[in-house]
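**User:** Once you have settled down, spend some time on the protein underneath, comparing sequence with structure tokens, and judge whether sequence predicts the tokens.
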Amino acid sequence: MILHKLRLSHFRNFSNLEMHFSPGINSIIGKNGHGKTNLLESIFCLALSKSFRTANDADLVQLGQSSFEIHGTLISELAVENELAIVYLDGKKSVRQNQKRLPRHSALIGIAPMVLFSPEDHRVTSGSPAERRLFLDVLLSQADQKYLSALQSYARIVRQRNRLLSLIAEGEQSPAQLDSWDAAIVPSGMVLIEARNAFLQQIEAQLQKTYTEISGNSVRLHAQYRFAEDAVIEDDESYVRTLQQQHNREIKRKQTLVGPHRDDVVFVLGERDVKKHASRGEQKSVLLALKIIEFEYLKNKKQSTPIFLIDDLQSELDEGRQVNLLSRLTDIGQTFITSTEQMQPRGREDSAYVVDNGTLKPMSDSQT
């Protein structure tokens, strides 16, 4: 997949922008605070229908304005052209494909597969379980609409079930009503659990191989799926049984305590939990390996090469890891890399652009 053209209107600090991009590595050069990350954010929005920096669409509107627009022309390997657009106006957002309004925002997800590597991604290896769940959910939602649908259904049922738990705790409803909600939550919950476990099993050998190539370290790296509350969920029956065992605690705490919304993934290097015991350098190598695997997984599942976004390359990777990653990107496909320093082109299809206070120009233009 190639982002051929991007047009922005009143998005962050970009008043009006229209730019064509290279199918290779696109280096976005500029000082901090001038709009490099904003540009990547707009591209990410086209693929995922929302920002990776804020949950509030109003935050994306340029100061002094009341709306924003993102338009992108994407071309697949089969030369199929897609015009994607996000329009935010009067506090409401709409998404379009080829000028046709889509019924829901999430309908954009998966059309243009995308992988993001940003400074905040260190939380995948060092942060809370929610960060690792988010990593899996974004990846698997792009790969499979069935997963995305189950994720949305599951989140809705958890909210409703939690509301019921609160009413039971307040004496306004009977605990017996939980049985029907236990039965309702299991189908979508099992889809998520099975897909996550299948993904981790599928990438096991590749995770080790990629980590060794990046770090030069042959210590075994593997991922373990860990259920909340030390539960063991193998099928529908064990899932229902686990929920029933938690009823009293759940009523007391007014929330659903077991299920994929509270599970975790533990990355183990040798015999050590990466989050607790790995060095910063080891964690970066694990994260970079995960991002490369994310790219390859999406490419295989979607039969389309994802667009790779890398924000603030120098701050996240030392020189050795930069060289390792860039050598891979030369053969990967279209990539957008933000940096404060000019990078040497590595292929004939590489291009460089300069960001300056909300403007973007090809570097060749800025040097004349």
